[in-house]
Write a structure and sequence with these properties.
Blueprint lengths: L2 H21 L1 E3 L5 E3 L4 H18 L5 H15 L12 E5 L6 E4 L3 E5 L9 H16 L2 H12 L2 H10 L1 H7 L14 H17 L6 H13 L13 H10 L1 H13 L12
Parallel strand pairs: 3-5
Antiparallel strand pairs: 1-2, 4-5
Protein backbone atom coordinates (compact mmCIF):
# COMPACT_ATOMS: atom_id res chain seq x y z
CA UNK A 1 0.00 0.00 0.00
CA UNK A 2 1.40 3.42 -0.92
CA UNK A 3 1.93 6.18 1.60
CA UNK A 4 -0.83 8.20 -0.08
CA UNK A 5 -3.26 5.27 0.14
CA UNK A 6 -2.49 4.66 3.81
CA UNK A 7 -3.09 8.34 4.50
CA UNK A 8 -6.42 8.28 2.62
CA UNK A 9 -8.01 5.58 4.82
CA UNK A 10 -6.47 6.76 8.07
CA UNK A 11 -7.87 10.29 7.76
CA UNK A 12 -11.59 9.30 7.92
CA UNK A 13 -10.81 6.90 10.76
CA UNK A 14 -9.09 9.60 12.79
CA UNK A 15 -11.87 12.08 12.05
CA UNK A 16 -14.46 9.46 13.04
CA UNK A 17 -12.73 8.76 16.35
CA UNK A 18 -12.38 12.49 17.03
CA UNK A 19 -16.08 12.99 16.35
CA UNK A 20 -16.96 10.11 18.66
CA UNK A 21 -14.79 11.53 21.42
CA UNK A 22 -16.33 15.00 21.14
CA UNK A 23 -19.88 13.62 21.17
CA UNK A 24 -19.15 11.07 23.91
CA UNK A 25 -18.17 13.40 26.73
CA UNK A 26 -20.20 13.13 29.93
CA UNK A 27 -19.87 13.99 33.61
CA UNK A 28 -19.49 11.62 36.54
CA UNK A 29 -21.72 11.97 39.65
CA UNK A 30 -18.90 13.89 41.35
CA UNK A 31 -18.42 16.27 38.43
CA UNK A 32 -15.45 14.65 36.70
CA UNK A 33 -15.37 14.69 32.89
CA UNK A 34 -15.72 11.22 31.33
CA UNK A 35 -15.58 9.61 27.93
CA UNK A 36 -18.69 7.45 27.33
CA UNK A 37 -19.08 6.10 23.82
CA UNK A 38 -21.43 3.19 24.56
CA UNK A 39 -25.13 3.06 25.43
CA UNK A 40 -26.45 1.54 28.66
CA UNK A 41 -27.93 -1.33 26.61
CA UNK A 42 -24.57 -2.08 25.01
CA UNK A 43 -22.78 -2.04 28.37
CA UNK A 44 -25.53 -4.18 29.89
CA UNK A 45 -25.01 -6.83 27.22
CA UNK A 46 -21.27 -6.78 27.90
CA UNK A 47 -21.88 -7.19 31.61
CA UNK A 48 -24.24 -10.10 31.03
CA UNK A 49 -21.67 -11.92 28.88
CA UNK A 50 -18.89 -11.39 31.38
CA UNK A 51 -21.00 -12.47 34.37
CA UNK A 52 -22.11 -15.63 32.57
CA UNK A 53 -18.46 -16.50 31.99
CA UNK A 54 -17.72 -16.21 35.70
CA UNK A 55 -20.68 -18.44 36.51
CA UNK A 56 -19.42 -21.07 34.10
CA UNK A 57 -15.89 -21.08 35.52
CA UNK A 58 -16.30 -20.60 39.27
CA UNK A 59 -18.37 -22.63 41.77
CA UNK A 60 -21.10 -20.70 43.57
CA UNK A 61 -21.82 -20.70 47.29
CA UNK A 62 -25.44 -21.15 48.33
CA UNK A 63 -27.28 -21.51 51.65
CA UNK A 64 -26.92 -19.11 54.55
CA UNK A 65 -23.80 -17.42 53.15
CA UNK A 66 -25.61 -16.40 49.99
CA UNK A 67 -28.69 -15.28 51.96
CA UNK A 68 -26.47 -13.07 54.12
CA UNK A 69 -24.73 -11.44 51.15
CA UNK A 70 -28.06 -11.11 49.30
CA UNK A 71 -29.57 -9.29 52.30
CA UNK A 72 -26.79 -6.69 52.25
CA UNK A 73 -26.85 -6.34 48.46
CA UNK A 74 -30.64 -5.90 48.40
CA UNK A 75 -30.49 -3.14 51.02
CA UNK A 76 -27.85 -1.33 48.95
CA UNK A 77 -29.51 -1.69 45.55
CA UNK A 78 -32.92 -0.68 46.98
CA UNK A 79 -31.41 2.80 47.34
CA UNK A 80 -30.38 3.03 43.69
CA UNK A 81 -32.81 5.49 42.17
CA UNK A 82 -30.57 6.95 39.49
CA UNK A 83 -32.18 7.28 36.08
CA UNK A 84 -30.87 4.66 33.68
CA UNK A 85 -29.54 2.44 36.47
CA UNK A 86 -30.32 -1.30 36.39
CA UNK A 87 -33.84 -2.09 37.60
CA UNK A 88 -32.86 -5.55 38.77
CA UNK A 89 -29.58 -6.75 40.25
CA UNK A 90 -28.29 -10.32 40.01
CA UNK A 91 -25.97 -11.68 42.70
CA UNK A 92 -23.56 -14.61 42.82
CA UNK A 93 -21.26 -15.58 45.69
CA UNK A 94 -18.24 -17.34 44.23
CA UNK A 95 -16.15 -19.82 46.18
CA UNK A 96 -12.67 -18.29 46.27
CA UNK A 97 -10.10 -17.23 48.84
CA UNK A 98 -9.89 -13.81 47.20
CA UNK A 99 -11.06 -10.98 49.48
CA UNK A 100 -12.78 -9.10 46.70
CA UNK A 101 -15.99 -8.35 44.83
CA UNK A 102 -17.11 -6.73 41.59
CA UNK A 103 -20.18 -5.25 39.92
CA UNK A 104 -20.83 -5.16 36.18
CA UNK A 105 -23.04 -2.99 33.95
CA UNK A 106 -26.53 -4.37 33.56
CA UNK A 107 -26.92 -5.12 37.27
CA UNK A 108 -24.54 -8.00 38.12
CA UNK A 109 -22.75 -8.34 41.47
CA UNK A 110 -20.12 -10.96 42.25
CA UNK A 111 -18.75 -11.50 45.76
CA UNK A 112 -15.89 -13.87 46.56
CA UNK A 113 -16.40 -15.91 49.73
CA UNK A 114 -12.93 -14.91 50.94
CA UNK A 115 -14.17 -11.36 51.39
CA UNK A 116 -16.24 -12.48 54.38
CA UNK A 117 -13.02 -13.21 56.27
CA UNK A 118 -12.08 -9.52 56.02
CA UNK A 119 -15.50 -7.80 56.01
CA UNK A 120 -16.45 -8.89 59.51
CA UNK A 121 -20.08 -7.73 59.64
CA UNK A 122 -22.94 -6.42 57.53
CA UNK A 123 -21.74 -2.81 57.65
CA UNK A 124 -18.24 -3.66 56.44
CA UNK A 125 -19.65 -5.87 53.68
CA UNK A 126 -21.98 -3.01 52.71
CA UNK A 127 -18.95 -0.75 52.30
CA UNK A 128 -17.55 -3.13 49.66
CA UNK A 129 -20.82 -3.74 47.83
CA UNK A 130 -21.66 -0.03 47.90
CA UNK A 131 -18.26 0.70 46.40
CA UNK A 132 -18.67 -1.87 43.61
CA UNK A 133 -22.24 -0.81 42.76
CA UNK A 134 -21.00 2.79 42.61
CA UNK A 135 -18.58 1.81 39.83
CA UNK A 136 -21.64 0.87 37.77
CA UNK A 137 -23.63 3.97 38.71
CA UNK A 138 -20.68 6.22 37.83
CA UNK A 139 -20.31 4.53 34.40
CA UNK A 140 -16.70 3.61 35.08
CA UNK A 141 -16.84 0.53 32.83
CA UNK A 142 -18.12 2.67 29.95
CA UNK A 143 -15.30 5.10 30.55
CA UNK A 144 -12.76 2.26 30.60
CA UNK A 145 -14.01 0.58 27.41
CA UNK A 146 -14.36 3.92 25.61
CA UNK A 147 -10.83 4.98 26.54
CA UNK A 148 -9.46 1.63 25.36
CA UNK A 149 -11.34 2.00 22.07
CA UNK A 150 -9.84 5.44 21.42
CA UNK A 151 -6.29 4.94 22.67
CA UNK A 152 -5.71 1.35 21.53
CA UNK A 153 -6.84 -0.84 18.67
CA UNK A 154 -10.54 -0.33 18.03
CA UNK A 155 -10.64 -3.77 16.44
CA UNK A 156 -9.45 -5.45 19.66
CA UNK A 157 -12.28 -3.79 21.57
CA UNK A 158 -14.85 -4.87 18.99
CA UNK A 159 -13.48 -8.42 19.15
CA UNK A 160 -13.71 -8.49 22.95
CA UNK A 161 -17.29 -7.20 22.96
CA UNK A 162 -18.35 -9.71 20.33
CA UNK A 163 -16.59 -12.67 21.91
CA UNK A 164 -17.15 -12.02 25.62
CA UNK A 165 -15.13 -14.07 28.09
CA UNK A 166 -11.91 -13.04 29.77
CA UNK A 167 -10.97 -10.21 27.41
CA UNK A 168 -14.34 -8.53 27.86
CA UNK A 169 -14.10 -8.97 31.64
CA UNK A 170 -10.75 -7.17 31.52
CA UNK A 171 -12.22 -4.23 29.60
CA UNK A 172 -15.06 -3.92 32.11
CA UNK A 173 -12.60 -3.84 35.00
CA UNK A 174 -13.53 -7.26 36.36
CA UNK A 175 -10.29 -9.09 35.64
CA UNK A 176 -8.77 -11.35 33.00
CA UNK A 177 -8.10 -14.22 35.37
CA UNK A 178 -10.90 -15.60 37.48
CA UNK A 179 -10.37 -14.71 41.12
CA UNK A 180 -7.99 -11.84 40.29
CA UNK A 181 -9.61 -8.45 39.75
CA UNK A 182 -7.93 -5.83 37.63
CA UNK A 183 -8.53 -2.45 39.24
CA UNK A 184 -10.06 0.65 37.78
CA UNK A 185 -7.97 3.82 37.76
CA UNK A 186 -7.10 5.61 40.98
CA UNK A 187 -9.56 8.40 40.17
CA UNK A 188 -12.35 5.90 39.56
CA UNK A 189 -11.53 3.94 42.72
CA UNK A 190 -11.52 7.10 44.85
CA UNK A 191 -14.80 8.21 43.28
CA UNK A 192 -16.40 4.81 44.01
CA UNK A 193 -15.16 5.00 47.61
CA UNK A 194 -17.01 8.26 48.23
CA UNK A 195 -20.15 7.38 46.26
CA UNK A 196 -20.25 3.98 47.94
CA UNK A 197 -19.96 5.61 51.37
CA UNK A 198 -23.04 7.72 50.66
CA UNK A 199 -24.92 4.73 49.23
CA UNK A 200 -24.29 2.46 52.22
CA UNK A 201 -25.32 5.25 54.58
CA UNK A 202 -28.57 5.83 52.67
CA UNK A 203 -29.28 2.11 53.00
CA UNK A 204 -28.95 2.30 56.80
CA UNK A 205 -25.45 0.84 57.21
CA UNK A 206 -22.99 2.58 59.53
CA UNK A 207 -20.54 4.51 57.30
CA UNK A 208 -17.87 4.40 60.04
CA UNK A 209 -17.53 0.70 59.21
CA UNK A 210 -15.85 1.64 55.91
CA UNK A 211 -12.80 2.83 57.85
CA UNK A 212 -12.75 -0.38 59.91
CA UNK A 213 -12.97 -2.37 56.67
CA UNK A 214 -9.95 -0.70 55.13
CA UNK A 215 -8.00 -1.14 58.34
CA UNK A 216 -8.84 -4.85 58.05
CA UNK A 217 -7.74 -4.83 54.41
CA UNK A 218 -4.53 -3.11 55.42
CA UNK A 219 -3.82 -5.75 58.06
CA UNK A 220 -4.69 -8.62 55.73
CA UNK A 221 -2.71 -7.27 52.79
CA UNK A 222 0.61 -6.82 54.55
CA UNK A 223 3.07 -4.52 52.81
CA UNK A 224 1.80 -2.50 49.86
CA UNK A 225 3.74 -0.87 47.05
CA UNK A 226 3.91 2.94 47.18
CA UNK A 227 0.69 4.58 46.00
CA UNK A 228 2.33 6.02 42.89
CA UNK A 229 3.19 2.48 41.75
CA UNK A 230 -0.38 1.22 42.05
CA UNK A 231 -3.60 1.93 40.19
CA UNK A 232 -5.40 1.66 43.54
CA UNK A 233 -5.17 4.48 46.08
CA UNK A 234 -3.14 3.43 49.12
CA UNK A 235 -5.12 2.19 52.12
CA UNK A 236 -4.11 5.22 54.21
CA UNK A 237 -5.19 7.57 51.43
CA UNK A 238 -8.54 5.78 51.11
CA UNK A 239 -9.12 5.95 54.85
CA UNK A 240 -8.30 9.65 54.88
CA UNK A 241 -10.68 10.38 52.01
CA UNK A 242 -13.48 8.41 53.69
CA UNK A 243 -12.97 10.21 56.98
CA UNK A 244 -13.10 13.53 55.12
CA UNK A 245 -16.60 12.70 53.87
CA UNK A 246 -17.85 11.09 57.08
CA UNK A 247 -19.85 14.10 58.24
CA UNK A 248 -22.03 14.08 55.10
CA UNK A 249 -22.37 10.30 55.21
CA UNK A 250 -23.26 10.43 58.90
CA UNK A 251 -26.14 12.77 58.13
CA UNK A 252 -27.43 10.36 55.47
CA UNK A 253 -27.14 7.49 57.98
CA UNK A 254 -29.14 9.39 60.58
CA UNK A 255 -31.85 10.16 58.00
CA UNK A 256 -31.97 6.50 56.96
CA UNK A 257 -32.48 5.34 60.53
CA UNK A 258 -35.20 7.94 61.04
CA UNK A 259 -36.93 6.59 57.93
CA UNK A 260 -36.84 3.08 59.36
CA UNK A 261 -34.03 1.73 57.17
CA UNK A 262 -32.24 -0.50 59.69
CA UNK A 263 -30.97 -3.65 57.92
CA UNK A 264 -30.63 -6.74 60.08
CA UNK A 265 -28.53 -8.98 57.86
CA UNK A 266 -26.19 -10.07 60.67
CA UNK A 267 -28.87 -12.50 61.77
CA UNK A 268 -28.11 -14.49 58.61
CA UNK A 269 -24.32 -14.37 58.96
CA UNK A 270 -22.93 -17.92 58.81
Amino acid sequence: MTRMARRSWKTPLILGLLGAVLSGCSTSPLGRSQLSLYSDDELGQMGQKSFATYQQKLPEVQGKTRQYVQCVADAITDQVTQEGAPKQWNLAVFKSDQANAFALPGGYIGVYSGLLDVAKNQDQLAAVIGHEVSHVLAHHANERVSTQAVTQSGLSVVSAVAGGGEQLATLLGAGAQYGVLLPFSRKQESEADLLGLDLMAKAGFDPEASVALWNNMKAAGGGQPPEWMSTHPGNDRRIGDLQGRMSEAGALYTSAKSAGRTPNCNRLKP
